[in-house]
Design a protein that fits this description.
The protein has about 190 residues and is α/β, with parallel strands linked by helices. Helix content is about 40%, strand content about 25%. Strands 3-2-1-4-5-7-6 form a seven-stranded mixed β-sheet, with helices on both faces. β1, α3 and β2 form a beta-alpha-beta unit. It starts with 5 loop residues before the first helix and ends with a strand. The structure holds S-adenosylmethionine. S-adenosylmethionine binds next to α3, β2 and α5. It comes from Negadavirga shengliensis. Keywords: Methyltransferase, S-adenosyl-L-methionine, Signal, Transferase.
Length: about 190
Amino acid sequence: QGTDSQKAVDERVQKFLDENREKWHNLNVPYEDGKILHDLIVDNGYQSALEIGTSTGHSTVWIAWALSKTGGKLTTIEIDKNRQKEAIENLKKVGLSEYVDFRLGDAHKIVKELEGPFDFVFSDADKDWYVQYFKDINPKFKKGGRFTAHNVLQSMSGIREYLDFVNSHPDYETTIDKTSSSGIAISYKK
Ligand SMILES: C[S@@+](CC[C@H](N)C(=O)[O-])C[C@H]1O[C@@H](n2cnc3c(N)ncnc32)[C@H](O)[C@@H]1O
């Protein structure tokens, strides 16, 4: 796939995303939310991405597709072996595996060990740990980067604390994309 033209990649990925649009049933983000992540990466030329919560890989496909355009790379973490297996198959099917480093295990531990630096994060695993993930990544997060978190318009445990934390952080400017029905918090590092 390394020799594919970007046009060939784009056509193949778009077809895969369209055909599978209604087929994601493992807590995956909806199509629209994947597109928001993709556009943030492409528009800002981000190249070193981290995803917490791969599941079966819907957002992973969107992020990896964006990185195929910017020349970047994604590290993605999942604790559930079967979901990760499906995600790996999906990325293979769509021809984007070369952009993704899949990590299996507890993100509580793995995030602390990652070297970084990152310029884009998508946080979509256990909401009660959102604040801790943010604290662990912040020293490895580049100025000008965007740290995104899913489900922030939903009343799930941990979300209020997360929004209070990022909204009062002096180094970040946080907005919420409300075109996503779940809500995506986007924290820009100044
Ligand atoms: C909302 S789903 C992710 C959906 C995915 N981003 C997508 O759009 O396709 C959250 C995932 O996080 C995983 N998860 C939860 N706690 C975790 C942890 N501590 N470490 C790694 N993964 C975790 C769950 O197994 C689940 O698959």
